[in-house]
Please model this.
Amino acid sequence: MLFHSLLKVQTKNPMYYPLTRYTFLLLFHSIFIHLNRKSTVILSYSNNIVYYNIIMYNLIL
Model:
């Protein structure tokens, strides 16, 4: 959650803030699955790409 305050500052519209907070929770949850369950490595890797794209989309807006 180190970059959470940075995302809060860079998002101009306050409507995007709950979306970024939710994507951060999903991102850390997928990392948790990736580190602890060997069977879901491919699934968590694809989820990390999707969540990263959503976060970068919110940064652009």
